[in-house]
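2024-03-11 09:14:02 DEBUG pipeline.ingest accepted 1 chain
2024-03-11 09:14:02 DEBUG pipeline.ingest length=529
2024-03-11 09:14:03 DEBUG pipeline.predict start
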Amino acid sequence: MFQKFKKSNSLRFVFGGILVFLALTLKIKVEWSEAAFAQKSGSGQVWTEKNESEKASSGSSVDVASLNRAFVDLAKKLSPSVVNIYTKTKVGGGSSRFSRGQGQMNPDDIFKYFFGNPFDQYQSPPREAQSMGSGFVIHGDGTIITNSHVVRMQGKNADSIMVKFNNESEKSKGHEAKVLGVDESTDVAVLKLKNPPKDLVIAPLGNSDKTQVGEWVVAIGNPYGHSHSVTKGIVSALGRALEASRSDFIQTDASINPGNSGGPLFNLYGEVVGINTAIDARAQGIGFAIPINTAKNIIKQIIEKGEVSLGWLGVTIGELSPEIANSLGLEGVDGVIIQDVFPGEPADKAGIKSYDVVTEIAGKKISSGRDFIVAVGNLPIGQSAPVKVYREGKFVSLTATIAKRKTEEELAKKFGAPDSRGSSSKLDAGKTGLMLSELTPELRRQLDVNSLTGGAVITQVMPNSPAAQAMLQQGDVLIEVNRKPVRTVKDAVTLLGAKKDSYLLKIQRRSASIIVFLDMSTGDEDTEE
């Protein structure tokens, strides 16, 4: 009986323990769920997590097979349109000098250095430089696009250009090509096969303006001679600026290496959206491609005319600093300020005026001088372009017809400074810290002043004065004060003697007009002599 009772109690204890465990587990689950919900939506939120239903509703399921097939089909269909480019160029023959800080000496120069005079220049022997790159076919007649730096070296086109396709063996010599034209400012070159093969596969061009950050892209090229290598990644950023280039760039993490230059960057529709051009050598996975829309205008001009003409409005511009923006009542307005308008040029005919702030050109937002130069330069000659400016508190929409940019010689000839007579008297412009002189014909010639009808020359800038703080320089020509013209020194002294807290000056410095903010609260008080 006792054994039966003991067994019964043991069973009750076991069952009781199980119930307690289940209760505690349920309690913990409930409390955790409530705690997680509180973390997500309560006042003491630390972070937010999605549950499975939220993940399902906010994301899209990926069909791995379809995605895999998309990359495979793209590589298979488009690799035949991509070419490997091999060039040879005779370089050298110029003077050479061993100099500390310029890297290692060329081994060929060691004998001359030790057994000749190390301080004299000497002629280095000519040598044949070889390079490789990539490109892609855009027309059945054998027209190929690549980078200018692939086919040019030391300012000259390559002496020999050979092109190979993916179905050709390593022993194949390839096909000879010639340069139709290059634009080094955008790093675009157009080649033409002398005897193109039949049934060339064409790489269709896309619309890079529609490219978005996060899109899948594929690069095909010839990195380090590894023919027709395919890499994939995403668009990491848009509108990147690189030094010494007139183009903005697409940034991508698709692997780009030396030899990829000039090759295509495809979207998943199989369209070229960029020309692979550069990498950031300090990092991994940071490559840059020229947007294909930037290249289209260049390509068309080279094919049709054999040269590239940049768009031109006929203005000089300046960055819109916070001080200038505040002085003109332009808080919250983003753009570039028009400093000067050349008479009779497209901007003048369109009604654009000095002190206008350009905020948009042909649908592109303008936030900097670089934006302006790229937008105008890439527009086709003769095209009518809408220009949006901010003028005296309101936006004004204008239309300008893009002209061909003039050379510096043409500008100097057309807008050279008119000859005017004036005294050489010098006057002190008070607490500004400026000494001014009349603009004589001799000074005009010396200062290379153009497109002026009058003005006063800055002959001296007092140290620590407001003028010095504003970075005004000796030789600057003052042509406006607070948007009023200065024709003589007397005009300048009168306008600058109005005892204002600040002035907006327009000066001519060499061939450029510049708008300067002169803050009278800066500098030392005793700047007068």
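2024-03-11 09:14:41 DEBUG pipeline.report The chain has a mean pLDDT of 76.
2024-03-11 09:14:41 DEBUG pipeline.predict end
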